[in-house]
Amino acid sequence: MSETPQAEFTDGEDFVGAVSARILETLVPLVRDALASGEVVTPEFLSPRQTARLIGVPAKTLEFWRARRTGPPFQKLGDAKSSRILYKRDEVIEWVNSRGVRA
């Protein structure tokens, strides 16, 4: 029966550190190459939850802003109350940048 990889380490932290380092060694070049080649695509449209995370506010705040037409521009797909709401990433970033205060 073969030994587990952890057998060569003195404690669990050493093992976790080694595994983490190996994952980084493998993933960093792959991500770098994907970014350089243009293979990584960021979505043009974001859900309210994704938008809230992007700008650092609760999703309920976006809902409040939508009702008052004071937040970032959004698009509603359909006419029903339960229609899907989407935000264009570029428009959200532009909206945030337009609210900057200069000292």
Low-pLDDT stretches are none
Report the biggest beta sheet as strand number plus sense, adding barrel if it closes: 3 strands, antiparallel
Largest beta sheet: strand ordering: 1-3-2
Helix content: 40-55%
Strand count: 3
And the CATH topology of the largest domain? Arc Repressor Mutant, subunit A
CATH architecture of the largest domain: Orthogonal Bundle
What portion of the residues fall into strands of 2 or more residues?
Answer: 5-15%
CATH class of the largest domain: Mainly Alpha
Give your account of this protein's structure.
With 103 residues, the protein is mainly alpha-helical. It has two domains: 33 residues; 54 residues, Arc Repressor Mutant, subunit A (Orthogonal Bundle), CATH 1.10.10. The protein is built from four helices and three strands, in the order H-E-H-H-E-E-H. The chain has a three-stranded antiparallel sheet with strand order 1-3-2. Strand 2 and strand 3 form a beta hairpin. The longest helix is centred in the N-terminal third of the chain and has 26 residues. The protein is elongated, with a radius of gyration of 22 Å. 7% of the residues are buried.
